[in-house]
Give the backbone structure.
Amino acid sequence: MTSQELKEKLSEEDIRTLLTRDMGATIYYEDDDIWITETVCHHGKKAKLYYYKDSMSFHCYTECGQMDIFEVVMGFKGYEENEFQKSINWICIKLNIDNCEYGFGKQEQISDWEFIRNYKRKHKKNVAIEPLKPYDENVLRIFKKWFTLDWINEGISVETMKKFNIMYSTWQQKIIIPHYDINGQLIGIRGRSLIEEDIDLYGKYSPFKVGRKKFYNHALGQNLYGLNKNINAIQRKRKIMIVEAEKSVLQTDTMFGEDNFTVALCGSNLTSYQKGLILMLGVREVIIALDKQYETLDSEECKKWAKHIKDKIINPLSPYVVITVLWDTNDLLPYKASPTDCGKDTLLQLMDSKIYVDTSV
Ligand SMILES: [Zn+2]
């Protein structure tokens, strides 16, 4: 049996059992299309792990990005990438599926490595070549061209909001953020909630739902938000600044206009697809400008955050480009703020003291 066959063998109930009984997750929301549970993939507490029934795929909107059930288990159990077969064993034992005891006995072990290679190759290929299906622009007609004072107060001009086609949903009280790919095609819509209870439960950002069936979700990891608008500045300057959220792209647009070279990862991980996009642009320098996920520089939290950035972003890119990092050594930003949140002067100060990553060690 291959991992794909095992995956196809798993029913929705099996997945539910694994999540709720074996990983201790709670399903906070369920409809015909999705479940929302807490992020057991990285032992998080927030309800930001989405399961899409159609495609049988997961998306962790905090850290991990798009995953299948094996990858969720790997995250939950803390297995390394080369311990993939352990996640299969774990699932088989939990669900009492026999004849798939990978890693037991010599013969299985050989086919084991064989299918891991297959799995990896297939996995990578899927990410690289499967294009996102663009949506019909007409869906945006249900939203209003209203611009909330909240964002204007946070340094985003009306001109910028018009440029990025930011809109407002009156009945869901959400700021609507259309996502366009590098060719300017609509590939997803995210809503930024203004209701506190929604923010607590689902996080600030969530995919947008219209009616019962249409769920304007897309794999956020298969795009860089803002690239369609900022590609000229990026290629002219041969540098790119990567931030976490769409809002930072909008703030820097208001600050720098046509000279803006910022794009958003829509998370704090760099996917291999995003890495490919960045390298394709031919940039010499990548400036990492993620949120300040630490209160003080000497805290454990700060060390953990630095390690995360090194493992997930610096290491994959450092063989190819110069890497610099905006690091708030002078305590200019509040906790959890983005480097773009406190205005142009603060951002320029942070950029002046950016840290060059020595990748020779
Ligand atoms: Zn996760």
In short: The chain has three domains: 3-129, 137-218, 227-356. The longest strand covers residues 186-193. The pocket of zinc ion is lined by residues 39, 41-42, 44, 60, 62-64, 75 (CB under 6 Å).
